[in-house]
Amino acid sequence: MGDFQDLPRQIDGEVEAEGKGGREHMERLRDRFDLVEQIIDRRRELHLTQQQVAAAAGLHQSVVSRIEQGVNPTVRTLEALAWALDARLTLTGRRAG
């Protein structure tokens, strides 16, 4: 079994078989995958454990773990994680303009 970062590629084939509806659903989920990947990458870049990030963010380690597994965090939790990871929350466009 691959790691979380391989999951979107593994799912792509299944989603494609579902047609247009499956592709639209996957596109909505892609943002969630991207966010989780950014959180994990930033934590690793800073050489921090989930426990260290949780302590700096005022969260339980289990919350950080669940977010890294793809559970939807609240905006407040994202703000705390961003602060702990010395990062900013931003929105970027998906479509080339």
Describe the global form. elongated
Helix content: 55-70%
Q: How much strand content do the residues show?
A: under 5%
Helix count equals 5
Task: Tell me the radius of gyration.
Answer: 15 Å
Quick structural summary:
This protein is mainly alpha-helical and 97 residues long.
Features:
97 residues; mainly alpha; 5 helices; elongated
What can you see in these coordinates?
This protein is an all-alpha fold and 97 residues long. Helices cover 65% and strands 0% of the residues. It is built from five helices and no strands. The protein has helices at residues 7-17, 20-45, 50-57, 61-68, 75-84. Helix 1 runs antiparallel to helix 2 (20-45). The longest helix is centred in the middle third of the chain and has 26 residues, at 20-45. The chain is elongated, with a radius of gyration of 15 Å. The chain starts with 6 loop residues before the first helix and ends in a 13-residue tail after the last helix. The model has no long low-confidence stretch (mean pLDDT 86).
